[in-house]
Amino acid sequence: MDFQCIMELRSILFVIFIFFSDAVSAIKCLAYFSETADLPCHFINPQNISLDELVVFWQDQHNRVLYELYKGKEKPENVHPMYKGRTSLDQDNWTLRLHNVQIKDRGSYQCYVHRQGPNGLVSIHQKIDNYLLVLANFSQPEISLISNRTENSDNINFTCASTKGYPEPKKMSFVLKTENSTNEYDALMNIFQDNITELYNVSGSLSLPVSPEANVSIFCVLQPTLTQTWLRSQPYNIDAKSRNTRQLFTDHGILITTLPVLFIVCVTVVSLIVKKRKKKQPGPSHECEAIEMEGEENEQAKQRVENRVPERSDETQCVDNISKTASGDKSATHF
């Protein structure tokens, strides 16, 4: 028989047992958190007494009034504050409906019916206790991987969590399924109860042996109570190829993590070296400026020498003048 079918059958049998055990002392009523509970009175009115002659009310185990119908009219002023606006009466079957059920509503309830007589109220019906059970369905468990297997071990760490359930869960386990086998491992549960709603959150973690050569599916299973169906997470599938790939990254994780750091360090060092070299290079000194100016002057002088027309001295100019005069005299005598 399938594992899930066995769990569901166990839950059904327990529900039947809890509802029919001790039936003489109390009637079990079951309701879910934030939904509606039916609290029957089982009052039979064979004489067909008019509502104008009846006083009907419900009380909890602390004698707090949930609802009162006084001679056919509701009396909300007599209702305890925690129940105001949360109840309604089905007069056809004398059932009180308690809406928006909370965890704190669990417990015993009694129904009373009195008839108005000449000498006052006379009790004509007092039912045995109705015991209200309140349940809250846990969320579907969620399984996740904490860390991959290490080099020296095939164990893989998993965690599982489920929230907002009631009552306190009984068991959390991990189921490891391969092609050839199915193994269940109990997990140590961490349970937290909300102080206001009284709902439970539960988590658990476990290190599971996973063979590197096998394809596996891992489930997280939560057993809230024997009255509730066991909850199972979606499978976490691991195949040998993908796990080897993850292991490769794990084995070289330090290197992969270090590469960006090394790159940043190298860039920083190179930047510092470049800045240092720039600081060591001297700026233009006065000596260099003088040399440059001297070179410019020499160049200008050189250009003047090349373009310059030599000037004749006064003596040379005088000789030329005499020569020109003598030549003129001769020409004049000749003519």
From TrEMBL:
Q: Does the keyword Iron apply?
A: no
Q: Which SUPFAM superfamilies match?
A: Immunoglobulin
Subcellular location as annotated: Cell membrane
Q: Per UniProt, what is the membrane topology?
A: Single-pass type I membrane protein
Gene Ontology biological process terms from the UniProt entry = adaptive immune response; cell surface receptor signaling pathway; cellular response to lipopolysaccharide; lymphocyte activation; negative regulation of T cell proliferation; positive regulation of T cell proliferation; T cell costimulation
- Which InterPro entries did the record assign? CD86_IgV, Ig-like_dom, Ig-like_dom_sf, Ig-like_fold, Ig_V-set, T-cell_Activation_Regulation
Query: Can you tell which superkingdom this protein's organism belongs to?
Result: Eukaryota
UniProt keywords, alphabetically: Adaptive immunity, Cell membrane, Disulfide bond, Glycoprotein, Immunity, Immunoglobulin domain, Membrane, Receptor, Signal, Transmembrane, Transmembrane helix, Ubl conjugation
Transmembrane regions listed in the UniProt entry: 12-33, 253-274
Stretches assigned to the Ig-like domain: 34-129
Q: Which GO terms describe its cellular component?
A: external side of plasma membrane
In this chain, the stretch annotated as Disordered covers 281-335
Predominant localisation class: membrane
Stretches with biased composition (Basic and acidic residues): 299-315
This protein's record includes keyword Disulfide bond: yes
Gene3D superfamilies (UniProt xref): Immunoglobulins (2.60.40.10)
Which SMART domains does the annotation name? Answer: IGv
Q: Where is the composition biased (Polar residues)?
A: 316-335
* Role noted for this protein: Receptor involved in the costimulatory signal essential for T-lymphocyte proliferation and interleukin-2 production, by binding CD28 or CTLA-4. May play a critical role in the early events of T-cell activation and costimulation of naive T-cells, such as deciding between immunity and anergy that is made by T-cells within 24 hours after activation. Also involved in the regulation of B cells function, plays a role in regulating the level of IgG(1) produced. Upon CD40 engagement, activates NF-kappa-B signaling pathway via phospholipase C and protein kinase C activation.
Q: How does it assemble?
A: Homodimer. Interacts with MARCH8. Interacts (via cytoplasmic domain) with PHB1 and PHB2; the interactions increases after priming with CD40. Interacts with CD28.
Q: What is this protein called?
A: T-lymphocyte activation antigen CD86
Say which species the protein is native to.
Rhinolophus ferrumequinum (Greater horseshoe bat)
Source gene?
CD86
